[in-house]
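Aim 2 progress. For 50S ribosomal protein L27, the working sequence is reproduced below.
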Amino acid sequence: MYDTVKTLHSYWAYFVLLILIVAVVNAIIGFATNKKFVSKDLRISLFALIFTHLQLVIGLILYFVSPFGMSMISSRGMGGMSSAERLLALEHPFVGILAIILITIGWSKHKKQETDKRAFGKIATFYGLGLLLILSRLPWKVWLDL
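Predicted C-alpha cells for this construct:
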C-alpha cells in the first residue's frame, strides 16, 4: 500500500504544480491587464484549490503508512534524524499544509472582493505564496528519482 500511495502522491504533484502555476500566471495577467474575472478564471482557481486539497488527502494517507512519518519521529526523535529524513517526516508535510491553508484563504478572500483586479490580486498573492512554499519543501532528490 505504501508504494502505491507514494507513487500516486508523487505523480499527482505534477498536476498540482501545473495547475497552480497556471492559476498564478493567470491571476498575475488578469491583475496586470485589469481583465474581467470571468468563469474561466474562476474554474482555473477552483481546480487549483481542488487539486491541492486532493494532494493533501493523499499526503496525509501517505504520512500515516510511511516509514518516514509518525513512526520515525516516535522511534528516533527529532535529534536522531538526518536532514533528508527530517524533510520527509516534518518539513514537507508541515509546509505543505501551510501552503494549502494559504491557497484556501486566497480562494475565500477573492470571493469577497468588490473589483475584479482585487480578486485577481488575492488569487495571485495567496496562491503564489502557497506555490513558493510547496516548491521550497519538495523532496527534489526523492521526487526526481522515481
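The chain has one domain: 2-144. This observation will guide construct design in the next reporting period.
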